[in-house]
Amino acid sequence: MVRTSAFLPLLTSAAGYFSQAEAVKPESKILQGNYIVEFDDTADSAEFFNHVGSVAKTRMTLNHTLFRGASIQFNDLANAEVQASKVAALGSVKRMWPNKVYYLPRDEVVWTGSVGGQNYIHNVKRQLGNDTFSPHVMTQVDKLRAKGVTGKGVKIGVIDSGTDYTHPALGGGFGPGYLVSYGTDIVGDDYSGDNTPVPDSDPYDGCGGHGTHVAGIIAAQANELGFTGAAPDVTLGSYRVFGCTGGAANDVLIEAYMQAYEAGSDIITASIGGASGWSEDPWAVAVSRIVEAGVPCTVSAGNDGEFGLFYASTASNGKKVTSIASFDNSVTPLLLIESSFAVDAGAEETFGYALGEPSNWADVSLPLWAPSYDITDPATGCEPYPADTPDLSSYVVLIRRGTCTFVEKATNAAEFGAKYVMFYNNARTGAIAAAATDVESIEGVGMVTADQGEAWIARLEAGSEVVVSFDDPLTAPVSLTQQRNDITGGYPSTYTTWNPTFEMDIKPQLASPGGMILSTWPVVLGSYAVISGTSMACPLVAGIYALVANVRKTFDPFTIESLLSATANPQLLNDGTTTYPVLAPVAQQGAGMVRAYDAAFATTLLSKSSLAFNDTDYFVDTTNFTITNLGDEDVTFELGSVGAAAAYTFSGDIYPDFFPGLELTEEFATVELSRTKVTVPAGGEETISVTVTPPELDGSRLPVYSGYITLNGTNGDSLSLPYNGAVGSLNSVQVLDIGYLSFTTDPQLTPITGSNASFVLPAPGTATDEDTIPVVVSLLAFGSPQVHYKLVRVGGDNSTDEVLGDIFGSPLTYLSRDRYYLFWDGSMPDGSYAPAGTYKFSIEALHVYGDARDPAQYDVDETIPFTVRYAAQT
Ligand SMILES: *[C@@H]1O[C@H](CO)[C@@H](O)[C@H](O)[C@H]1NC(C)=O
Ligand SMILES: *[C@@H]1O[C@H](CO)[C@@H](O)[C@H](O)[C@H]1NC(C)=O
Ligand SMILES: *[C@@H]1O[C@H](CO)[C@@H](O)[C@H](O)[C@H]1NC(C)=O
Ligand SMILES: *[C@@H]1O[C@H](CO)[C@@H](O)[C@H](O)[C@H]1NC(C)=O
Ligand SMILES: *[C@@H]1O[C@H](CO)[C@@H](O)[C@H](O)[C@H]1NC(C)=O
Ligand SMILES: *[C@@H]1O[C@H](CO)[C@@H](O)[C@H](O)[C@H]1NC(C)=O
Ligand SMILES: *[C@@H]1O[C@H](CO)[C@@H](O)[C@H](O)[C@H]1NC(C)=O
Questions:
Q1: What gap in Å lies between CA 651 and CA 655, rounded to an integer?
Q2: Predicted confidence (pLDDT) at residue 26 exceeds the cutoff of 50
Q3: pLDDT value of residue 186
Q4: What is the three-state SS of 325-344?
Q5: Which terminus of the chain is less hemmed in, N or C, by CB atoms within 10 Å?
Q6: Domains of the chain, with CATH numbers?
Q7: Which of 79-93, 359-373, 528-542, 736-750 has the lowest mean pLDDT?
Q8: Out of 64, 136, 167, 210, which one is annotated catalytic?
Q9: Which atom of ligand 7 is nearest to the CA of 798?
C-alpha cells in the first residue's frame, strides 16, 4: 500500500497544516445518514418503502419518469450502516448515493439599487434605443433582436432562489399569462440544506435575490434602466431550491429538475454548483438524463478559478450538460446620483456618487479638503490627522478607500469636526454604498469613482478650490453610466472555474459575459443590481438557446451546443491585470465567447463540440469529426489549428497551483489533419481524421494542453473546434493529503495532537449532535472515486492491529479536492458497539482510474490512536 508521508510532520506543525488546507474549500457538505436511492426500473417500490418504514424517514419521494427513487434519513446513526447496506441490497434498489448539500456560487454583488437611495427609480434618466446592452452586443444577441428574434413561445425552467415576479420588469405576477408562468417552491423559506424541505406553490424570491437577477438576464422586460433580458418573449418556470439561508441538497435539486422537465420546459438552466469533478454525481446524472431526453440544460461552471486546474463543479460536469464559463463585461454599469461641482468658481460640472449612510446631503455646498494628495496611498486617512489640521466642519472631506474601515476613516475626520465625507474608490470598479453610521458629527457619506476622485485631487494639488453641491438625494436625478473596462473586459473572468473533470471530460463548453452584469433584483432589496459570476453568464446562454431555437426550429441539445461551440470566439488569456498574447486554455474558456447570430444562421454543423485526447495512460492519438453542409451550395473549407496556453497542474506541492500564479507555457500540441482543404457538397458531409502529438512537457507536473481546430469556409463561416488533453498519468497523482482525528464539538475540526486522545462516548445508541465524539477527517489534494474510513483495533505490545472494517457512511464516493469527514459514535461495522479500548482510523483513498480491488491503488493514512469508554446508561 502507498503510504503518504505528510502525516507525521504535520502533527507537529498546525500552522503548516492550515496553510496547506487553504487549498481545500469545504463547499459541499455530506448529510450524515442521509441517502438518495434510485429504484430499479421495473421493480415495485413498495418493497423499499416497507423495508425502510421502521428504520428511516422518507425525506422526499422522487417519483419521476427519468428518476424513480427517494431520499431517506436513517433514524439511528448507530446501526444505520447495517441498515444502509441492507437497503442497498434490496432488489428494488438500483443505486444509492450519500446526499450532499450545495451552495449558491460566491457571486460578487457589486452594487444593488439601494445605492441610489429610496425611490431612486423615479429619478433614473432613461436610456432607450436599440439593443445596446453590452452583454448583448458582445454575444451578437443585439443582431438577433434587431431581426425580431425574441424567444417567443419558448419555456425556460430556472432552478434558483425563486423569482420576484412582482417586479414590473419581470411581469408583475405569477401564473398563466405572466412572464413567470409556471414553477413552484420546492423548499420553503426556512429550508437551509440540512433540514427537511417544506414545499409550497409560490416561488417568490423576497430574501435571496440571485434567482431574480438570473430571471432578468434571460427575460427582463423594458424598464427604467433601459435594458432587457436576452429573450424577453420567453415564459419562465421558477423552481425555488434555496430557503433564505444555506444551501440546497441533491434530492431537492433532482426534484426541481424533474418537475421543470415534466412541466414541459424547452430549456432548463441553473446557476448552482459545488466542487465535484465527477459526472457520476447523482445530480449530474439526473441532469444528463434530461439532456438525453432532448431538453438542453445549461449550468454555470463555478466561481472557483483561484483553485486552479481540475476543480470542475457539478452539475455542470455532467455528461452532455452544457457548462458555462464567464467573461468580463466590456463595461462596468454604475448607478450614481447626479450632483455638481465647480472649480475656482467656474462653470458647474456634473458628477455622480453612490449614496452612503448617513445620507443627509440635501443642499450641502462646500469645498473639498483632502488629508492626502497621494492617489496611490493604500491607507489614506487611517491614522489620526496632524494637530495642524483645519476645522473640517466647513468642508467635504475627500478620502481614498482602502486598508481600514469607512468608520475608522470617518472617525479620524470627525476628530476635526467633519460632517461630510466623500470617499473615492481605490479600484476601477465603480463606487459602492459606504456606511459610517454612528460616527459623531458625520451627517453625509458617499463614494465617487476612482477617476472622479483622482481628477479632484489633481485640482486640489494644483491649488484650486473645488466646491461640491448636492440636491436632495431622494429627488436628484440618478444616472446609469457605463465605465469602460479596458483591463479585463472581453476576456475570461479570473474567477471562472478551471476544469477538466477528473476523467478528462472537456468542460466548460461555452462562455458569455458574467462579470459586472446589470439585471433585476427583488423590489424590496432595491429592484436592480450589478453582480459578477458564472451565475450571470449561464442564464444569458440559456436565453441565447431560446433565440437560436426560434431561428433553427429545433431544441436538440447537441445541435445547439455544437453550433454555439463551433461559432464561438476564443479569447486571449488575462490574469486580472495583464492580457497575454496567447489563447486562454480550453479548461478555462471552453469554446470561447458565444456568437448567437452566427450560430443561429450557420449552415455548417460539426459532429462534435470538442475533442478529448485524455491523459498519457489513456491517450487517444487519433480521432475524427464530420463536417455537414446544411446549405444549398458547395463549400470549401481551409482547415488548420491554433494552440492555447498549456497549464501545469502542479509545481511541487501535492495540491494544484492557484490562478493567477499557475505556470503557463506556449508549448503546443502538434495537430495533424487528414485534409487541410476539403469541399463539402451542398447537403453532404465529409469526415476529417485528427492525429495529435502532445507537447513534450514534464508529465509529473500534469500539464493540460489544448487548442482549436479552425475551419474557414468559402461561405464565410469561420469555425473552431476545441481540443484538450493532459501529459502525464492521472492514475499516479497522489489524492490523499492527510487523514487525522478531530472531535465533533470543534467547529474548525482541528487535528487532535499528542499521543493519547481519549473519549467518553454516550451510552450506545444515545449519541446526539451535542456530544463530543471522534471525527475522522480526510484532506484530499486531488479527486478520488472512493474513500474508505476504516476502524482499526490497536493491538497491545504483543499483538498486531486489527482492521475491523468501514465505519458508518464509508466509503464516500466521487469526491473532489476538499475536506471530508465522518463522525463515529462507537458503532461497529456489524451494528454492535466497539468495546472500550484503543482504536485508530485508517483512511484509504482510491486513485483516479484506479481498480478498487487493488490495494496498491490506494493512498493510505492513519489517525493517532485514541481510547474510548462509554458513559453509563441513564
Ligand atoms: C408514482 O407515480 C405513479 C404515477 O403517477 C403513481 O402511480 C405511483 O403511485 C407513485 N408512487 C409513489 C410511491 O408515490
Ligand atoms: C435602431 O436600429 C434601426 C435599424 O438598424 C435604425 O434604423 C435606427 O436608427 C436605430 N435607432 C437608434 C435609436 O439607434
Ligand atoms: C479517459 O480514459 C478513461 C479510462 O478509459 C475513461 O474512463 C475516461 O472516460 C476517458 N475520458 C474521456 C474524456 O474520454
Ligand atoms: C471515426 O472514429 C470512430 C471512432 O471514434 C470510428 O469508429 C470511425 O471508423 C472513424 N471514422 C472514420 C471515417 O475514420
Ligand atoms: C481562418 O481565418 C482566420 C481569420 O481570418 C485566420 O487567422 C486563420 O489563419 C484562418 N485559418 C485557416 C486554416 O486558413
Ligand atoms: C496522556 O493523557 C494523560 C491523562 O489525560 C495526560 O496527563 C498526559 O499528558 C497525556 N500524554 C500525552 C503525551 O499527551
Ligand atoms: C509481551 O511479551 C513479552 C515477552 O513474551 C512479555 O515479557 C511481556 O510481558 C508481554 N507484554 C504484554 C503487555 O503482554
A1: 9
A2: no
A3: 97
A4: EEEECCEEEEEEEEEEEEEC
A5: C
A6: 23-102 (3.30.70.80), 108-330+489-602 (3.40.50.200), 334-480 (3.50.30.30), 603-732 (2.60.40.10), 733-870 (2.60.40.4070)
A7: 79-93
A8: 210
A9: 1
